[in-house]
Amino acid sequence: MQIAVFSAKPYDQAFLLRAATAEVEFQCFELQLNPSTAVMAHGAVVVSAFVNDDLGRETLSLLAEGGTRLIALRCAGYNQVDLAAAAELGIRVVNVPAYSPYAVAEHTIALMLALSRKLPRAYNRVRDGNFSLDGLLGFDFYAKTLGVIGGGKIGQLVAERMRAFGCRILIYDPFNEETCRRLGFESVDLDSLFEASDIISLHCPLNDQTRHLINRDSVAQMKPGVMLINTSRGALMDTQAVLDGLKAHHIAYLGMDVYEQEGSLFFEDHSLDIIQDDVIQRLITLPNVIVTGHQAYFTKEALQHIAETTVSNILEYLEDKPLTYQVGG
Ligand code: NAI
Fold first, then answer.
1. Which segments of the chain have a pLDDT < 70?
2. Is 25 designated active site?
3. Assuming Cys at both sites, which of 62, 200, 260, 309 could form a disulfide with 234, CB separation 3.0 to 4.6 Å?
4. What is the residue-wise DSSP string for 192-249?
5. Which member of 74, 107, 203, 233 is catalytic?
6. CATH homologous superfamily for 2-99+300-327?
7. Residue 36: its pLDDT value, please?
8. Can you give the pLDDT at residue 98?
9. What CATH number has the domain spanning 101-291?
10. Domain range list for the chain
């Protein structure tokens, strides 16, 4: 069966084609899925999509009209899917719940270290023959307090790795307190986490409860000089509030791999464009900010796991088996 695959970059295609079987063949499009491109999937019973594809009601209705019955997401998050609309239209949705939590945890720590030790600046300076240390002063992670919001797979890995640096670990996760305590982490409420943490790292899903969890009020609660890291989902932060916190020198470091308006920017080369989004442009100019373009997951191991799980998700559907990774109804 031909599967219509959207947002498939050459690196995705390489791993998907390797995982393909006689029953599951991929027809790959680099374009994002949205109401204008949905027509390309006409006749495809299974459509595969990624994080920034538009799976709102309009796109889903067009896909349903074209005969689509399964959306195979190649990512863990499904906040981009209108699950209620999918259920009404008889479209089932599967995801890849954990492709490499290690990849995201390691990138999170890479951002923390690069920010603290000012590696981008040091790298550029040395290449220019400048070996001065002015402006490169870092801080020890040892004996600092890390606050992790969302103590699931990735949050736990980040916490374990930062504990190895000698950090005290606080976790806020109202749905996973027992596990976090059993792993030896301090389970705290959100206010205590904001007030006590030197570094705050976000690892919860994006939903109605967590949208703009980091906002003007929560920034004001944080310690002056705090480091804030978001490798989870952009809209967990009110980015303008965070930018204002940086300009006021209240937030001292920001590392972000995700951005609330990333859909029209990330995964594409805009180096010759005049980027119209003034918030991201301003953030990129700040010396104490590192932005990466949703690359935390991007390791060989993760891409292989995504491709293999996508194929097994589709095979389960084609063989009329229970869908192990179905999301929503
Ligand atoms: P997970 O499902 O294992 O853990 C999420 C945790 O968040 C759960 O323990 C849950 O109880 C907790 N949680 C839910 N609502 C919460 C709330 N209101 N406050 C605090 N905690 C809450 O998910 P996993 O694998 O650890 O992934 C975390 C996030 O990482 C995903 O939601 C996804 O958005 C993001 N991600 C980012 C990637 C990247 O490349 N930047 C790649 C993969 C995931």
1. none
2. no
3. 260
4. HHHHH-SEEEE-SPPSTTTTT-B-HHHHHHSPTTEEEEE-S-GGGB-HHHHHHHHHTT
5. 233
6. NAD(P)-binding Rossmann-like Domain (3.40.50.720)
7. 98
8. 86
9. 3.40.50.720
10. 2-99+300-327, 101-291
Judge whether 319 counts as a catalytic residue.
no
Between CA 302 and CA 305, with CA 303 as vertex, the angle to 5 degrees is 65
Note the pLDDT of residue 296.
Answer: 97
Q: Are 20 and 43 in contact (CB under 8 A)?
A: no
Do the Cβ atoms of 62 and 37 come closer than 8 Å? no
Which stretch of DSSP H or E encloses residue 92? strand 92-94
| pLDDT (0 to 100) of residue 99 | 85
Two structure tokens written together for 281: 């442009």
Which distant-in-sequence residues (6+ apart) come within 8 Å of 261 by Cβ?
234, 239, 277, 279, 280
Please tell me what DSSP assigns to residue 81.
Answer: B
DSSP labels for 234-288? GGGB-HHHHHHHHHTTSEEEEEES--TTGGGTTTS--TTS----HHHHHHHH-TT
Is 294 marked active-site? yes
User: Which residue in 154, 95, 99, 104 sits closest to 304, CA to CA?
Assistant: 99
| pTM greater than 0.90 (yes/no) | yes
CA of 200 to the centre of ligand 1 (A): 14
Q: Which of 78, 96, 185, 232 to mutate to test the pocket of ligand 1 (most atoms within 8 A of CB)?
A: 232
pLDDT at position 122: 98
Q: Which residues of 174-190 are buried (b: 16+ CB within 10 A; e: fewer)?
A: eebeeebeebebebbee
Whole-angstrom distance, CA of residue 157 vs CA of residue 164: 11
Residues 6+ apart with CB under 8 A from 136: 117, 118, 121, 122, 125
